[in-house]
Amino acid sequence: IDLCFIRTTINFVIALFVVIGTKQDVMDIPKEHRSLLALRCIVGLIGFTCNVYTVSLIPLFLTSIIFNTSPFWTSIMQYCTAGVSISYSEMIGMLGCFGGVIVLSLAKKADIHIEISELSYEPDGFFDIAINAENAVKFDTLSYAGYLAGIAFAFTTAWGMAIVGVLTRRFQDIHFSVLMFHYGWSSSLILLVYILIDHFSSGRGTLR
């Protein structure tokens, strides 16, 4: 959360300088775009937050593979919302990415079971066998659950990036700095409120 707050605050500051330098009116947003702009800000924040947690749960190479499916999700969303056709190369690439993710996921589960078997059968006695077996089951469940959570976060980020991409195409008449400005201040405000609530309610927040 700290990293997300720093990033969104930096985005806001940069956007503010660009808005001032280019003399953009940040309030000049057409009414039909205001709800979509709010949605873009929320989805962008969720996507980046999931991105931060993803890299701590799954390997970086797998994270990159899933993130790179974003253009394909964008194509699907564009087809569903605007009727833009999907090329055969995009469909082949999408199937290849999904197949790779499934294979890597199954391989990870197999590696965890191998590590557990090596951990479980090096005891000194009967009671050590029982304790190690119990710990191994916990390790198996938590490790694989965290791995699946990382994959879910990665796909959420990819979907979020796709939604942001689709929505951004609808804002072609709005300067990019205005989009960054509204994303920066709204996301920073949401994260700041969360950080303050977490700090004062639990006593273990980032301000401790």
Provide a brief overview of the structure.
This protein is mostly helical and 208 residues long. The protein has helices spanning 2-22, 31-54, 60-67, 70-82, 88-120, 126-169, 176-202. The chain is built from seven helices and no strands.
Written overview of the protein:
The protein has 208 residues and is mainly α. Helix content is 82%, strand content 0%. It contains seven helices and no strands. Helix 1 packs antiparallel against helix 7 (176-202). The chain is flat.
Please tally the β strands and state the result: 0
**SSE arrangement, N to C:** HHHHHHH
The global form is flat
Query: Which class best fits the helix and strand makeup?
Result: mainly alpha
Kindly estimate the percentage of residues that lie in beta strands according to DSSP: under 5%
As a percent range, the share of helical residues equals over 70%
Alpha-carbon distance between the two ends:
14 Å
Number of helices: 7
Mean pLDDT: 75
Radius of gyration: 22 Å
Sheet having the most strands: none
Low-confidence stretches: 112-139
